[in-house]
Amino acid sequence: MTDTNTEQAIDLDSTDLFDIQRTMRAMRRLKPDPVPDELITKILEAGLCAPNGGNAQKWRFLVVKDAAIKKSVQPYYKRAYDEVQKPRHDAQAPKEPGPALDQHHRNEAAIEYLTDHFHEAPVWIVACAEGANSASAATGASVFPAVQNMLLAARALGLGATLTARHVTFREEVEKLLGLPDNVGSFAILPIGYPVGKFGPTRRTPVSDVAFLDSFDQPWPG
Ligand SMILES: Cc1cc2nc3c(=O)[nH]c(=O)nc-3n(C[C@H](O)[C@H](O)[C@H](O)COP(=O)(O)O)c2cc1C
Fold this sequence. Notes:
Layout: H1 17-22, H2 37-48, E1 59-64, H3 67-92, H4 99-117, E2 123-130, H5 137-140, H6 144-156, E3 160-161, H7 171-178, E4 184-193, H8 207-210
Antiparallel strand pairs: 1-2, 2-4, 3-4
Helix pairs in contact: 2-6, 3-4, 3-7
């Protein structure tokens, strides 16, 4: 994995879409300071601009600010980490000491931090869908474009956020605590707040490793 942005100077205050995309990484350390409702409205409005199947707009968004509700959900988010995600991540960790292992430890520390402080984010947006098969993959395909729009909007407003979906390990319990109606399923929880650290470049493999021209034998030359 390389940092695809190191060659380019990044202006962290830029609101150019491409700069926003390049610096919209998961911001897992958040301040508890309140986020004005107007900004949450702007984020929701950005979400509603997203493509969705048949323009049916079956998405529903639960904004959670209530500390007691967030606190009741966090133990399930942590259990999913302890029981499912951490063992998987440990198994995938680089075996040799070096930069890749150091990066793995840094990443895991940030994931653990968010896990322990999940409920302390001042605002959550729970991205949901209404409908009979509300938890199906096909329905999710109509919710995640809105999620991405909201993450970009948060970044553009100087707010940190992370796409999280780990709660689905305990979907039934979490949805009950969130008080979702029976015909509404949840897909993601976005903890949002002012970031503790700075926005920075995303780390991704180069385009030529994952994009091809006309056949998979030929990497995209760009
Ligand atoms: C479907 C999905 C579910 C995710 N769930 C979680 C999660 O539960 N907790 C978390 O900390 N990050 C979660 N992430 C964020 C990814 O770990 C993150 O985007 C990836 O490691 C790349 O890091 P970056 O966005 O900081 O560049 C999720 C991302 C996706 C797409």
